[in-house]
C-alpha cells in the first residue's frame, strides 16, 4: 500500500512522527513517503531532525507575511504533481491546520483517499479557534477513514453523518510522541538545565504559551497584565517561550520585560519544551496539543481560551478554561498555588487522550483496509 504523509507545522510533525516511524517499519505492508508543506519552516525542521525523519518532498511554501489564502493556493498548486508522480492510495493528514485541509482537498481532486488523524474535534464555534475549527469540519467531508482520539470525537463525527464503520477510536498520537520524546531524552542523556540557568527551579514554575489569533489585541494584553500581577505577588518563576508573531510579541515584551521572575525565551524546540513542561508546576496555554500532553506528566492546565475543542480534558478535570480576562486568570492560578487539594485533583486526574499506543492501533487499521 502506497502511503503519503502530508503536514507542514510543528504540531503536525510531532503527532505524525510516531506513526511515520511505525508504518516505515512495516516494509512488507507499506511503501511510505513524506511530503511537507513547510507552513512553519524552522520549527518544523527542528522536529524532523529530532525524530530522524527526512521528507521525500518539500513544498517549501513559507514566505514572509503569508496569509491563509497564500498557504492554501500554494499547496494546491505545488502538491498536484507530487500526487500524480507518486500516486499514493492514501494521503494521511493530521489535525486542523490549513495544510491539513488543503492537502485533503488536493487528494480529493486527484482521486486519492484521505485518512485523517485526530479527527472529530469540535468547538462548535467557527470563529474559535480560527481557522482551525472550519479546517477540521471541511477535512471531515473530504476524509475516507477517520482516526478519532476519543469517544467524544467519534460522537461528533456520527452527528455529522459519518458512517460508524469509517471511524476508529485510537487515542491521540501526541501522547505517543510525548513518550517517545521522553525516551529519547533519557537515552541520549539530554539535559537542558544550562539553557534555563537563569530560572530558579527550586520555586514553582509556571509555564506559559500563547499564540491564538482570536486573542490578538486586548485579550493578549489582559493575559500579560495577569502574568505581571502573578509574578509580583507570588514566589514563583514564570517561563514564557514567546511566539514569533508580532501580535503576540508586542504586548508580551512591552508588559513583561524586566521582571526578575519572568523569563522570556525565543520559541523552544520540542525536546527542550517537553523537558521544561516536565519540571513545571502549572501550565497556562491556549495550545491544543499541550492540553493533551500535560496530563500525562501530572501538570494541571489552565486554558486561556473561551472555548476548547478538547472538552475531554475539561470533563476529566485535567484542564480548566480560564479565558483571557485578567481577574479570572489571577484567581485560578492563585487557587492552584494555595489550595493543595484543588491542585492534586487536577494533577492526579487520568489523561483522557490515550496511553501512547495510538500509532499501533492506526497501523493495524491501515493493514486491514481493502479499499
What does this structure look like?
The protein is of the alpha/beta class. It folds into two domains: 2-171 and 356-368, 3-Layer(aba) Sandwich (Rossmann fold); 193-347, Glycogen Phosphorylase B (Rossmann fold, 3-Layer(aba) Sandwich). Helices cover 46% and strands 15% of the residues. It has 15 helices and 13 strands. The strands form two sheets. It has a seven-stranded parallel β-sheet, sandwiched between helices. A six-stranded parallel β-sheet has the order 10-9-8-11-12-13. Helix 7 (173-187) packs across helix 10, helix 8 runs parallel beside helix 9 (246-256) and helix 8 (218-233) packs parallel to helix 13. The termini are close together. The model has no long low-confidence stretch (mean pLDDT 95).
List keywords for this structure.
Rossmann fold, 15 helices, 371 residues, alpha/beta, 2 domains, seven-stranded parallel sheet, six-stranded parallel sheet
Amino acid at each position: 500500500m502506497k502511503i503519503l504523509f502530508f503536514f507542514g507545522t510543528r504540531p503536525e510533525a510531532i503527532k505524525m512522527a510516531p506513526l511515520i516511524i511505525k508504518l516505515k517499519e512495516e516494509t512488507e505492508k507499506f511503501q511510505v513517503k513524506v511530503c511537507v508543506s513547510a507552513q512553519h519552516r524552522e520549527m518544523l525542521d527542528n522536529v524532523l531532525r529530532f525524530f530522524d525523519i527526512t521528507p521525500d518532498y518539500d513544498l517549501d511554501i513559507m514566505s514572509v507575511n503569508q496569509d491563509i489564502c497564500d498557504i492554501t493556493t500554494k499547496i494546491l498548486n505545488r502538491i498536484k504533481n507530487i500526487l500524480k508522480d507518486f500516486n499514493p492510495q492514501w494521503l494521511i493528514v493530521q489535525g486542523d491546520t490549513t495544510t491539513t485541509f488543503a492537502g485533503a482537498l488536493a487528494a480529493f481532486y486527484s482521486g486519492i483517499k484521505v485518512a485523517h488523524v485526530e479527527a472529530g474535534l469540535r468547538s462548535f464555534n467557527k470563529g474559535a479557534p480560527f481557522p482551525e475549527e472550519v479546517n477540521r469540519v471541511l477535512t471531515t467531508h473530504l476524509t475516507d477513514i477517520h482516526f478519532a482520539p476519543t469517544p467524544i470525537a467519534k460522537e461528533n463525527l456520527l452527528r455529522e453523518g459519518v458512517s460508524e464503520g469509517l471511524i476508529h477510536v485510537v487515542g491521540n498520537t501526541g501522547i505517543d510522541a510525548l513518550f517517545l520524546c521522553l525516551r529519547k531524552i533519557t537515552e541520549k542523556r539530554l539535559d537542558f538545565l544550562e539553557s534555563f540557568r537563569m530560572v530558579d527551579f527550586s520555586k514553582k514554575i509556571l509555564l506559559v504559551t500563547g499564540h491564538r489569533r482570536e486573542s490578538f489585541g486586548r485579550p493578549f494584553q489582559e493575559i500579560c497584565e495577569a502574568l505581571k500581577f502573578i509574578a509580583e505577588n507570588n514566589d514563583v518563576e514564570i517561563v514564557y517561550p514567546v511566539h514569533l508573531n508580532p501580535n503576540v510579541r508586542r504586548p508580551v515584551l512591552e508588559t513583561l520585560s524586566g521582571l526578575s521572575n519572568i523569563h522570556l525565551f525565543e520559541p523552544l524546540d520540542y525536546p527542550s519544551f517537553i523537558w521544561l513542561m516536565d519540571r513545571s508546576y502549572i501550565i497556562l496555554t491556549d495550545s491544543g496539543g499541550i492540553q493533551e500532553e500535560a496530563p500525562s506528566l501530572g501538570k494541571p492546565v489552565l486554558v486561556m481560551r473561551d472555548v476548547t475543542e478538547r472538552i475531554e480534558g475539561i470533563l476529566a478535570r485535567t484542564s480548566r478554561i480560564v479565558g483571557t480576562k485578567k481577574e479570572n486568570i489571577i484567581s485560578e492560578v492563585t487557587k492552584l498555588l494555595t489550595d493543595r487539594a484543588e491542585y492534586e485533583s487536577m494533577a492526579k486526574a487520568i489523561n483522557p487522550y490515550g496511553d501512547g499506543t495510538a500509532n499501533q492501533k492506526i497501523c493495524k487499521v491501515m493493514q486491514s483496509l481493502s479499499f
